[in-house]
Amino acid sequence: MIATMHVPFVDLRAQHAPISGELDRAVREVIARADFILGAAVERFEAEYAAFIGTRHAIGVATGLSAIELALGAFGVGAGDEVITAANTFIATVQAITAVGARPVLVDMDPSSYTIDPDALAAAINSRTRAIVPVHLYGQPVDLDAVLAVARRHGLLVIEDAAQAHGARYKGRRAGSFGHAAAFSFYPSKNLGAFGDGGMITTDDDRAAEQLRLLRNYGQRVKYHHAIAGTNSRLDALQAAVLRVKLPHLDGWNAARRRHADAYAARLARRVRTPTAPAGIEHVYHLYVIETGQRDAVQHRLRAREIDTGIHYPVPAHLQEACAWLGYKAGDFPATEAASARILSLPMYAELTEAQIDYVAEAING
Ligand SMILES: Cc1ncc(COP(=O)(O)O)c(C=O)c1O
After folding, report:
1. S-S: 284 plus which of 101, 139, 269, 280, CB 3.0-4.6 Å?
2. How far is the centre of ligand 1, averaged over its atoms, from the C-alpha of 14 (Å)?
């Protein structure tokens, strides 16, 4: 039995240590310019992020939730519309749909990928359906060929929820460049995280991009001249400055996450179910989610050895109290419900060491 070692779930201090000089400089530059709202750092980061994802536009907003909500709104989704998404997602996806006044329609996941089941999606479409919000959950792009084919067949909008999938690729293209628009979150623990809240919308649509720039800023094109009813949802300049420092490191960090995923799988696959990405998909392992019938016991054992874990998510969206009004019940989405009792997210971040991975694997294999 080796000595106990604390393994945090994420370790932002380890990420920041080697780039702390650059981060300090970037923040000081914003303070020196005093352009805290929108301004140079936001403009530059938007251009860099659009180039990184491969879209014509990127519009910085306050949060990932707001990115989904504003993207839906910019494409005219609202009251009377139905928007389909997966029951296996963080609640923000669902709450963004309700925020624009549309009705969320939830569907089950494909148990092999944990992402939306394209057949279940197709079966949920009716005359009120306006849009699909596929979620690239845990960092794995959804089956985009299948989802986009369904969308095209029915003339539906696709707003990707890429909040967990910065840098992931599907058949060589970045997640976030496939739909009419895509939403990203820069919540600190995301693969690309700010020092607070932040979000981004990517799109190739010039009209929507223009609309989104208005919507996030009180509907104003010129100060104190308000063209449309908007809101205040701007990406903060200090956050943009931090994100500009981090963006060039993202592909390297994601590659390290993939190496750690392989290392976990090599040590664990005989005892628990480990995630696998099908050919053509570059998973970025925002979360490394294993499955076991003894989930609670395993989590307990890891906690006793000071290994932090998470469950994403313990209660599927359709069984959340906040969604009771939608009328779903236990048993509606069997794959999602079965997974929620079995899944466990292990520590995952680029700076994870081989010793930590060995220690976690040893604790699981018991
Ligand atoms: C899948 C998903 N969608 C949306 C969000 C919302 O992002 P934010 O917390 O920045 O509002 C998150 C993360 O928090 C998420 O994981």
Report:
1. 139
2. 23
d(C-alpha 139, C-alpha 163), whole Å: 8
Where do the domains of the chain lie, and which CATH numbers do they carry? 15-248 (3.40.640.10), 249-365 (3.90.1150.10)
Angle, helices 20-33 vs 237-246, to 10°: value is 150
The total number of residues shown for the chain amounts to 366
Name the residue at shortest CA distance from atom 12 of ligand 1.
163
The reported pTM is: 0.98
CB 234 within 8 A of CB 218: no
The predicted structure's pLDDT at residue 3: 83
Whose C-alpha lies nearest to ligand 1, atom 10? Answer: 64
Decide if 159 contacts 142 (C-beta within 8 A).
no
113: amino acid identity, one letter: S
The predicted-structure confidence for 154-202, as pLDDT tens digits, reads as follows 999 999 999 999 999 999 999 999 999 999 999 999 999 999 999 999 9
Contacts of 344 (CB under 8 A, 6+ apart): 289, 290, 291, 292, 295, 298, 299, 309, 310, 311
Does residue 90 have its Cβ closer than 6 Å to ligand 1?
yes
Does the pLDDT at position 82 exceed 90?
A: yes
Q: Is the CB of 118 under 6 A from ligand 1?
A: no
What secondary structure, in 3-state letters, does the chain show?
CCCCCCECCCCHHHHHHHHHHHHHHHHHHHHHHCCCECHHHHHHHHHHHHHHHCCCEEEEECCHHHHHHHHHHHCCCCCCCEEEEECCCCHHHHHHHHHCCCEEEEECECCCCCCECHHHHHHCCCCCEEEEECECHHHCCCCHHHHHHHHHHHCCEEEEECCCCCCCEECCEECCCCCCEEEEECCCCCCCCCCCCCEEEEECCHHHHHHHHHHCECCEEECCEECCCCCECCCEHHHHHHHHHHHHHHHHHHHHHHHHHHHHHHHHCCCCECCCCCCCEECCCCCEEEECCCHHHHHHHHHHCCECCECCCCCCHHHCHHHHHHCCCCCCCHHHHHHHCCEEEECCCCCCCHHHHHHHHHHHHC
